[in-house]
């Protein structure tokens, strides 16, 4: 009789464990729009693409500013997430690999310039490396005369 109760308890525990794991996996499968800035900027032609076409390709810009009275700058940012950062529930604890940006200049309703940039997180680590500043100085020899 006790083995039957133990078997039922283990079965309930297994079902509960599988349900929790399935719920955790499914929580990472939410849908959100994905932008591919590197390829999407290639679809934008300076002097031809309109403001509405940019919005249909890239969506609303992440930031805008007026450069001059007739020229507006739109900036798109996209975080280049590492594999660990993509994991459900724990991904926020890890830092990203870098960022992708697209900067567009619009004069009226027409794009006049488009620029793509990719920045790696470790790209500027050389600035904190001061080993190149160390100069080996040889001690002077003392002469007793």
Which features does this protein show?
alpha+beta, 145 residues, 4-stranded antiparallel beta sheet, Beta-lactamase Inhibitory Protein, Chain:B, domain 1
Structural description of this entry:
The protein has 145 residues and is α+β, with helices and mostly antiparallel strands. The chain has a domain of 89 residues: Beta-lactamase Inhibitory Protein, Chain:B, domain 1. Helices cover 26% and strands 24% of the residues. The protein is built from three helices and four strands. It has a four-stranded antiparallel beta sheet with strand order 1-2-3-4, with helices on one face. The longest helix has 26 residues. The protein is flat, with a radius of gyration of 28 Å. The termini are far apart. The mean pLDDT is 78.
């Amino acid at each position: 009789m006790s083995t039957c109760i133990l078997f039922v308890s283990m079965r309930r525990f297994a079902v509960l464990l599988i349900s929790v794991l399935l719920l955790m996996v499914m929580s990472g499968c939410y849908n959100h729009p994905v932008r591919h800035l590197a390829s999407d900027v290639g679809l934008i032609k300076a002097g031809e693409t309109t403001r509405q076409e940019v919005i249909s390709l890239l969506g609303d810009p992440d930031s805008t500013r007026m450069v001059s009275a007739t020229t507006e700058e739109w900036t798109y940012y996209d975080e280049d997430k590492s594999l660990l950062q993509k994991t459900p529930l724990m991904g926020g604890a890890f830092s990203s690999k870098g960022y992708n940006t697209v900067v567009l200049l619009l004069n009226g309703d027409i794009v006049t310039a488009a620029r793509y940039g990719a920045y790696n997180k470790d790209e500027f680590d050389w600035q904190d490396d001061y080993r190149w500043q160390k100069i080996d100085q040889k001690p002077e020899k003392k002469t007793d005369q």
